[in-house]
Amino acid sequence: MFSRKYDLWTKEEYTYPVTGQFIPNIVSYIHEENEESRPAVIVVPGGGYRVVSPTEGELVAKDFYHKGFNTFVLTYTTNLLFESPLKMQPLMDLSNAVMFLRKHAEELRVIPDKISICGFSAGGHLSGSLAVHFDNEDVKLKEKYGGIDNRPNAVILSYPVITSGDYAHQDSFKALLGANPSQEELSFMSLEKQGKDNTPPIFIWHTAADELVPVENSYLFAEACRSKGVKLEHHVFGNGKHGLSLANEAWIKGEWAYKEHGQYTITQMLETLEHHVEKRIELPSPYSHFNHLPEGRKEVKQTILADMKASMPATEPDEGIAVWPELAHHWLKKNLNL
């Protein structure tokens, strides 16, 4: 397996205000046993647009890697402390990633017309946003990529944030649009209102018992897709909390927290908190306990990972839900003619 980080922007191109040196990037998991090109999956973890969660990154990428794909994990721009509304930046990050793969398809051993994205929670909202807004002029990044296509060939949405309406995950939209968004902004980012017949094929899975992002989010988008004739597969599992990732033993054991390589998705969060601790800038809840940490990256990082482990659902591996990657794989084979 060949794994490497690729920055998606130059320092001059990337204008979102961040603390530290963070630049949105993808990390590759590429087969080396031969030089053949393969279909690709870009994994887009969740985190409420405040962090890019390691629980839904490398573990998922490796699962699809072992199914024969070359895979990539996107670490996109987030807004941890609700300081600078993200607006279109994460969507441009993901659009950039799709076009980066197509531009460098030979080097990355990717089949350019078989690129899928797989998003979780807020990362599901981001993935769904590209599915419906890929033809937006700001998202096409013509100055950077010219005429390269940014439309994904298939989209997998895992317990996705969809609506800004009655069933909204409010913090995701606050991080994305700020505290006082316009109705136009809310409508643009409320994906059930943006369905169109050129939306790529959509696979959705969710749990009926999701307490954080209600399952109605999935139903709303599924109906919007169905009404436009979009190819759709929709699975709702009867039990299970939010944020189940692969719902398997590796996820439950927290392997994402112990393996150094899989922690790269928290870089922007780490740099933000590290800066506040170092400068003794008071952090608000739920990060106020960082105010008493000694200076140093190690202490900040250990606390972040401990918090993430503590916030994981109190549950066991669920074989019934853990079948979703197999279901998605069969669906990809049908829709991409693999």
Notable traits:
globular, 8-stranded mixed β-sheet, 36% helix, 338 residues, Rossmann fold, alpha/beta
Q: Any overview of this molecule?
A:
The protein is of the alpha/beta class and about 350 residues long. It has one domain (about 5-335): Rossmann fold (3-Layer(aba) Sandwich), CATH 3.40.50.1820. Helices cover about 35% and strands about 15% of the residues. The chain has 14 helices and eight strands. Strands 1-2-4-3-5-6-7-8 form an eight-stranded mixed β-sheet, with helices on both faces. β3, α1 and β4 form a beta-alpha-beta unit. The model has no long low-confidence stretch (mean pLDDT about 95). InterPro entries: AB_hydrolase_fold, BD-FAE-like_dom, GDXG_lipolytic_enzyme.
Average predicted confidence as pLDDT = 94
Looking at the overall shape, the CATH architecture is 3-Layer(aba) Sandwich
Largest sheet: 8 strands, mixed
Low-confidence stretches: none
Order of helices and strands: EEEHEHHEHHHEHHEHEHHHHH
Query: Which CATH class is shown?
Result: Alpha Beta
Shape annotation: globular
In the residues, how many domains can be counted?
Answer: 1
Topology:
Blueprint: E1 5-7, E2 25-29, E3 38-44, H1 58-65, E4 70-75, H2 89-103, H3 105-108, E5 110-120, H4 122-133, H5 137-140, H6 142-145, E6 154-158, H7 170-177, H8 183-189, E7 202-207, H9 216-227, E8 232-237, H10 249-252, H11 255-258, H12 267-279, H13 297-310, H14 324-336
Parallel strand pairs: 3-4, 3-5, 5-6, 6-7, 7-8
Antiparallel strand pairs: 1-2, 2-4
Pfam families: BD-FAE
Keywords: Hydrolase
GO molecular function: hydrolase activity
